[in-house]
Design a protein that fits this description.
mainly alpha, globular
Amino acid sequence: MGRQRRPQPKYLAKKLKAIREELGIGQLEMSKRLSKCGPKLDGAKVSKLERGEREPNLLEIVAYCDMAQINASVLIDDSWSIGELVKEMRRR
């Protein structure tokens, strides 16, 4: 009997990409900045996160939220749209 994949936020990958684009940086620069916050990521891992091929761990989520200066619920909760995420970032 196989294990079922746990539920994943539907828009998480798109929101991660939106954060990077709002910061106006590429995937390699994003990986460098995230690595300064703790989790060690390279450009390929950032790409996989943004395409939804890899789910971020908790430390990566915290690092993204710190960089964007947003609450984790804005990133994780699908009731927050990408547009609302960008508005939250621009308020800071």
